[in-house]
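Problem: given the chain below (348 residues), write out its structure.
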Amino acid sequence: MKLAVAAFSLSILTSLGAFISYKRFSRERKAQIPSCSNFKYEVLEKATESFHDSVKLGQGGAGSVYKGILPDGRVVAVKKLFFNTREWADQFFNEVNLISGVQHKNLVRLLGCSIEGPKSLLVYEYVQNRSLDQILFMKNTVHILSWKQRFNIITGISEGLEYLHRGSEVKIIHRDIKTSNILLDQNLSPKIADFGLARSLGTDKTQTNTGIAGTLGYLAPEYLIKGQLTEKADVYAYGVLIIEIATGKKNNAFSQGTSSALHSVWEHFKADTLKSSVDPRLKGMFTEEEALKVLEIGLLCVQSSVELRPSMSEIVYMLKNNDCKFDSPRQPPFLSASVLMADEETRD
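Solution.
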């Protein structure tokens, strides 16, 4: 009997301690959130039909996104995260703090958040079309992106990244640029999304050492191997991305030889047959000068040496000026797979 009472008392004390810790954690986190409009949890829960699968837009490593209709009729996207680790909590508040004041036509706009309920929520503008990967890599899809649409998407993403790197006092590095994090609006204009892994650098800093995060196949070598993070890591990922858009092929981090999209484009570049890399589904209906420029810029971005990669400002200028001349790529693309495999062999 005494043992049962002791166990019950311990359970009560444990629950009380957890509750106090949660409240303290919530107060600390609230103080970190800048002017982020508060949404009531109950309102967002109702707007998303209790986060029903029928209104689910997608899912990432840290949570799921749902379409919601607010009482005033506005359509929004609600990102739900469940904090079972402090790392996920940090991603949530990192995302709020970094982009609450960011405004650009090619970045998904944060409308507000909710931190009062059982799950923390971010509320974004609703982007009508799917993510780029769902359209670009969809087999047997009725809608094939035209070259003009692809070029506009490539240019828009470059402008969004240029703004993150240069548009404010704080330099923001996205760290997870990839096709699934590019959303398309009703006009198929791109909007960069998912800032959970983003990091900021002060104007006096050019590099930071940080834990590796992101998606294999898009990770720059200096970041993947040494954890050295600069805006050129985003440039590398952007290079992979635009090569995927131009070729219609997904880059596989563990492919080698001709099965790698990056390697294939490099081989065509050396053989002066770069035109052959363009997505065959376009059936030759593309502007050759633009397509070759995009592929060469992509190869410039994925060079191993940081100093050989252009900045996003330079890339925007290259894309927007027809008469712009730029250096040809000097190095073959960095392939994540070969480095990872070599590293594994070294450990063995």
